[in-house]
Amino acid sequence: MLTFGVLMVTCGRLADTFGRRRIFFLGLFIFGMSSLVGGLSDSAGILIGARVIQGAATLLWPSIIGII
């Protein structure tokens, strides 16, 4: 949650600068890949790292709000 909260404003600015659709699909890709890594992890460290990256995939939320 901390990673999500900190990056929300920055990702919103990126969505305004580079386009909401492009940033949305980039965030979707990052979230999907980190979900795959987390699902296939065999240690707690890898799972925690994947969850942190999922939190960093906040590129989705400002883009969704802007697209709607």
Give structural notes:
The structure is a single chain. By secondary structure, the protein is mainly alpha-helical. Helix content is 87%, strand content 0%. It has four helices and no strands. The chain has helices spanning 2-18, 20-40, 44-56, 60-67. α1 (2-18) crosses α4 and α2 (20-40) packs antiparallel against α3. The chain is elongated. The mean pLDDT is 87.
Mean pLDDT: 87
- Topology as a string of helices (H) and strands (E): HHHH
Number of helix segments? Answer: 4
Major sheet: size, sense and barrel closure? none
Radius of gyration: 13 Å
Strand content: under 5%
Low-confidence stretches: none
Bin the helical content: over 70%
Cα-to-Cα separation, first versus last residue? 23 Å
The global form is elongated
* Helix/strand/pairing category: mainly alpha
The number of strands is 0
